[in-house]
Amino acid sequence: MKLHKVITIVFVSLFSINYSYSQSIDEIMNRGEVHGNFQLDLQYYQEDSLTGAVEVPEDVLMNGFANFNYTNGNFSAGFRYESYLNTMLGFPTGYKGNGIGYRYASFINEDMKITVGNYYEQFGSGLIFRSYEARGLGYDNAMDGMRINYKLAEGLHVKGIIGKQRFYFDYGEGIVRGIDGELMVNDFLGGKLKEAKTKLTLGGSFVSKYQVDQSATLNLPENVGASAGRFTIQRGKVKLNGEYARKINDPSADNGFIYKDGEAFFAEAVYSTKGFGLNLSAKGVDNMSFRSERNAALTDLQINYLPALTRQHTYNLLATLYPYATQPNGEIAFQGELIYKIKKKSLLGGKYGMGILINYSTVYNIDSTAIPSAIDTSMQGYTTNLFSVGDDKYYEEINVEINKKFNKKFKGTFTYSNLMFNQAVIQGKKPEDYPNVYANIGVLDLTYKLSKKHALRVEVQGLFTEQDQQDWGTLLIEYSFAPHWFLAVMDQYNYGNEHKNSDGEYDERIHYYFASAGYSKGTNRIQVGYGRQRAGIFCVGGVCRNVPAASGLTVSITSSF
Amino acid sequence: MKKLILLSLITLSSGLIAYSQKEARSIPSANVKDLEGNTVNTKKFSNEGKPMIINFWATWCTPCKRELNNIADIYDDWVEETGVKLIAISIDDSRNAGKVAPYVNGKGWEYECYIDPNQDFQRAIGFQNPPYTAVVDANGQIVWTHSGYKEGDEEKLLEVVKKVAAGEKIEH
Q1: For position B21, what pLDDT does the model report?
Q2: A-B Cβ pairs (cutoff 8 Å, strict)
Q3: Fewer beta carbons under 10 A from the terminal one: N or C of chain B?
C-alpha cells in the first residue's frame, strides 16, 4: 500500500510538471527535437532451379531498423532498434531477431564533447582506426564505451576513445583504446600564418587492443599497439597528403599467426582548377589486418579501414561482377583520375560542353620472401619491403566516361572499361581452375526528357570476356514521372555462357529479369520489385559481400521525420 | 501499480513529444570539412536570410551526380531568381575523399562544398542513402526534405525554394 501511495505521488507530480508548470519548462523543452528514420526490406523467396535460387523455410525474410535521436541544445541521445526476422539471404547470419543495436548519449561542454554508449569515429584516413556502418551490407563495427572530442586550442583537436566493438547483438572479446591529435599549424600559430596561402595540417594517432591470451601452444601478445602519422599540405589548387601506419606483432587467423609487424601507407596528390581535376594516389598494405579478436573473419570486428584504391563503379555489370577488394595481408596499389570539361561552344563541346573522366588503377602483390619455418624461430613468416612492387598482378583497370548533353531534352553518358581481375587471389579460388579474367565493358546511359516531369532513361551494357562466365548484356528501361513515380524493367542476360549440360545444351544462358516500381513523397519511399537477382558481389562504401542468387518479390520502405 | 508506472511514463513521454514535435527543425550540429581541410560546424551554415539547399552526394552515387550536374546547368538562374545557396555535402569516405575537389572543380560546380568523411552529419540529419536534399528557410529551419533523385525532381525543388524565398509556408 505504501509503495502504491509513493507511485501515486510520483505520477501526480509528473503530471503537474508536464501540465501545470509547463510554462516554466517550456523554454527548455521547446529547444528539444526528436528525429529519426526507418527502413524495411522484405523479400518473398521463390525456388528457381535455373539460377539455383532456393526457397527459404520462412518464405519471407526481413531486415529493418529505425533510428530515433533526441537533441536539446548541447545534449543529444538516441537509439536504433533493429529487426532481422530472419536475416535476408546474403546478409551476415550473425544478425538474428530483434535488439537495440546502437544507443548513446552525449553532451558538449565548452570545447569538450563527451559521448557514452555507441559511437562511430575515425582517425586520419582510417589506416589504424575507423568505426562505421554500412547498413546495406550489414556492416557495423560501432564502438560501445566512451569518447572524448576536445578542442584543446585553436587549431588543435584531440580525440580519445575506449570501448568494445559491436559483434552483431553482442561484443567482440577485445578492448580497443586510442588517441588521436590533429594540429592545423596555421590556425594554431595564428597571426599572419592564418592567412598564408600554404596550409599545413599534421596528425598522429595511437590505437591499442587488448585480448586475453588463451592459447596453449603460442605466447600471444595480449596488448597490440598501432600508430600512425599524417600530414596535409595545401597551396591553392595543389594538395598533398600522406599517412603512414605501423602495427606491432599481431598473430591472428588472418595472417596465419605470424609475429611480423604490419605496415601501411597512403599518399595522394591532387590538383584542381575550374574545368580540370587530377588525383594521383598510391597505397601499400602489409600484414595490416587489425581486429579486436584474433580469430574473427569476414567483415567482423575490424578496427581499421583499408578500402580498395580502385574506381568505385555503379553500373551493375561493372560494379558487381569483378569488383576489387583490398588484400590486407599485402598489396601495393596506384590510381590516377583525370576529369576535364571541354568548353561550351567548342568543336567537341557543342552548346553545352562535354565532360570526360579517365581513371586508371592497378594493384600488385608486395615483393616478399618466405622464411623457411626451420629457421624462422621468431615466426616472422616472410621478409618484405613495403614499397617494393611484386610480380603478381591482382587487378588493373582503365576506364573512360564521357558525358554529353545534346540538347535540352536529350543527354547521355558513355563508359568504357578494360579490366584484369585475378579471381584466384581476390576471391580465394584455385588458380588452376580460375584464370585471370580480362574483360571489356561498355555502358551507354541515355536520358530523354519527354516533358518537364516525364523522362525516359535507357541503359545498355555489355561485358565481353573469354573467361569465367563469358559475355553478358544488360538492358534497363526506366520511366520516371517526377516527383512521385518511377517504373523500371531490366534484363541481364548471360548470352555468351559456354557451359553445357550432359545433353550438350548451353544451360547457363540465363535471363535475369527484374521489374520494379517506386513511389516517393517527401522522404517516404516505397519500392516493389519482382524477378531474379544474380549471385554476385555487392559493394557499398568500400565493403563488399557475396550475395547468393535469389528469386521472388522484394519490398523496400524508407522514411524519415 | 504497474498501470500507474505505465501511466506516469506515458504522461512524461507524451509531454516530451508534444514539446519536441515541431513542423520544422534546425540544422543539426556536426563537424564537416571544407575542401581546404578546415573544420566547419554545420550550425554555422548561413545565407544571410535567404534560402539554402543542403544536398548530400557521393562520387560513387550516379543519381546524386546526375542531380547536381542538372542543377549546375541552371544554378545561375536559380541564384538570380531566389538568392538560394546550394551546399553540397559529400559523404565520401577516405577511399574517395581525394576525388571530391577534382570532381567539383572539374565539373565547374559553383556550390559551397564540404566533406562528411565519417558520416557524422548524415547520421545527425538521419537518412540512409544519398541523394538527400533539405531546404532551409530564412530562420535556419529545415522546412522540406526529399530523398532520391529522378529526372525532373529539380522542378519541384525550385518550386519549394521559390516559396521559401517568398516566405510562404511549405507543404509536402
Answers
A1: 44
A2: 219
A3: N
How many residues are present in chain A?
561
B148 vs A contacts (CB less than 8 Å):
520, 525
Residue B145 has which C-alpha cell? 526534405
Chain A, residues 312-341, CB within 8 A of chain B, namely: 312-315, 337, 339-341
For residue A11, the chain B residues in CB contact (below 8 A) are 4, 7-8, 11
Cross-chain residue pair B151–A30, CB shorter than 8 Å: no
A480 touches B at CB < 8 Å: yes
ipTM: 0.89
Place of cell 548524415: B122
A257-281 residue pLDDT tens:
999 999 999 999 999 999 999 999 9
Q: Do A312 and B62 touch (CB under 8 A)?
A: no
Distance CA(B149)–CA(B62), nearest Å, equals 10
**Mutation to test the A interface, candidates B34, B76, B105, B119, most A Cβ within 10 Å:** B105
Distance, CA of A538 to CA of A529 (rounded, Å): 18
User: Vertex B53, ends B52 and B57: CA angle to 5°?
Assistant: 145
- Residue A527: which H helix or E strand, with range? strand A524-533
DSSP A270-333: EEEETTEEEEEEEEEEES---BSSTT--TTTTB-S----SS----SHHHHHSS-----TTEEEE
User: Structural domain boundaries of chain B?
Assistant: 21-165
SS3 label, residue B1: coil
**Minimum distance, in Å, between the CA of residue B165 and any CA atom of chain A:** 19
Tally of CB atoms within 10 A around A223? 12
**Residue B93, phi-psi category: left (phi > 0), alpha (psi -120 to 50), beta (remainder):** beta
* Res A55: pLDDT: 87
Angle ∠(A477,A478,A480) on CA atoms, nearest 5? 155
A337-381 pLDDT, tens digit each = 999 999 888 888 888 889 999 999 999 999 999 999 899 998 999
Give the chain B residue whose CA is nearest to the CA of A485. Answer: B150
From the list B8, B99, B107, which residue is nearest A279 (CB)? B99
CA-based nearest distance B125→chain A, Å:
8
Interface residue A113 vs chain B (CB under 8 A): no
The answer, yes or no, to whether residue A403 has pLDDT greater than 90, is: yes
Q: Residues A86-100: pLDDT tens digits?
A: 999 888 889 999 999
Instruction: Please indicate if any CB of chain B lies within 8 Å of the CB of A22.
Output: yes
- With an 8 Å Cβ cutoff, are B15 and A201 in contact? no
**Of B120, B124, B132, which Cα lies nearest the Cα of A36?**
B124
CATH of the domain spanning B21-165, picked from 3.30.1490.20, 3.40.30.10, 3.40.350.10, 3.30.428.10? 3.40.30.10
Minimal CA separation from A300 to chain B, in Å:
19
